[in-house]
């Protein structure tokens, strides 16, 4: 902070201007931190001989990211031929490829968790049934039907699953709220492009 340095602008002729470092920002993405400098717009206007109504480009944001291609095509049709629009997925292709990989990993993890949970539920039911073999024999001897005996185990399994779901959701929601407020769980910024595990809590997810 406070150091003086020279910045060279590739023009004809080559120009250089002195600057002072008045602040250091951290976007959390190494490619952005190494590429961009926040400086005085007035100097850029002067170096490029721009008029007051001229700029280097606009940045547009859309409400729904899924409509990015549609918005870009609309802009391309409306803009003059000498202008061109670039989508953020084109400017930072590596980051978005990394995000797609994360989505695949999340789907694989969810499938594995579902398989493990199903196997555990089946194993628990089998253990309960094996432990109650004598009880099943007594009920059959008393004239109970197969469906009556099955309902006993289904009710018991529903009770266990219900308690597990309630406790699991309470624990998961508590951890999510804790992380969203404190950012306690950290990440390697060089690998994940962020300092902490981000949490976004949406009510409809918890109901499904």
Describe this structure in words.
It is a single chain. The chain has about 210 residues and is mainly alpha-helical. About 60% of the residues lie in helices and about 5% in strands. It has helices at about 30-35, 40-45, 70-80, 90, 95-130, 135-140, 145-180, 190, 205; strands spanning about 5-10, 15-20. It has a two-stranded antiparallel sheet. Strand 1 and strand 2 (about 15-20) form a beta hairpin. It is elongated, with a radius of gyration of 30 Å. The two termini are about 50 Å apart. The mean pLDDT is about 85.
Question: What are the SSEs and their pairings?
Answer:
Blueprint (H helix, E strand, L loop, with lengths): L3 E6 L5 E6 L9 H6 L5 H7 L20 H11 L9 H4 L1 H39 L1 H9 L4 H37 L6 H4 L10 H5 L1
Alpha-carbon Rg, integer? 30 Å
Low-confidence stretches: none
User: Quick one: biggest sheet?
Assistant: 2 strands, antiparallel
Distance between the termini: 50 Å
Q: Output the structural class.
A: mainly alpha
Spatially, the strands of the biggest sheet line up as: 1-2
Helix content: 55-70%
Count of discrete alpha- or pi-helical segments spanning 4 or more residues:
9
Order of helices and strands: EEHHHHHHHHH
Oligomeric state of the chains present here: single chain
Tell me how many strands there are.
2
Choose one word for the global shape.
Answer: elongated
In round numbers, the mean pLDDT is 85
Residue fraction in strands: 5-15%
């Amino acid at each position: 902070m406070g150091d003086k340095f020279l910045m060279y602008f590739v023009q004809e002729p080559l120009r250089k201007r002195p600057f002072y470092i008045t602040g250091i920002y951290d976007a959390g993405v190494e490619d952005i931190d190494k590429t961009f400098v926040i400086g005085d717009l007035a100097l850029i206007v002067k170096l490029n001989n721009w008029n007051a109504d001229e700029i280097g480009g606009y940045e547009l944001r859309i409400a729904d990211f899924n409509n990015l291609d549609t918005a870009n095509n609309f802009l391309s049709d409306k803009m003059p031929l000498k202008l061109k629009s670039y989508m953020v997925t084109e400017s930072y292709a590596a980051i978005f490829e990394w995000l797609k990989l994360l989505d695949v990993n999340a789907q694989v993890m969810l499938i594995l968790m579902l398989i493990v949970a199903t196997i555990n539920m089946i194993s628990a039911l089998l253990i309960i049934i094996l432990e109650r073999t004598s009880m099943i024999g007594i009920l059959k001897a008393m004239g109970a039907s197969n469906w009556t005996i099955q309902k006993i185990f289904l009710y018991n399994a529903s009770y266990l699953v219900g308690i597990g779901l309630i406790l699991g959701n309470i624990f998961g929601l508590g951890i999510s709220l804790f992380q969203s407020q404190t950012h306690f769980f950290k990440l390697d910024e060089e690998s994940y492009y962020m300092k902490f595990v981000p949490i976004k809590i949406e009510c409809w997810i918890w109901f499904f």
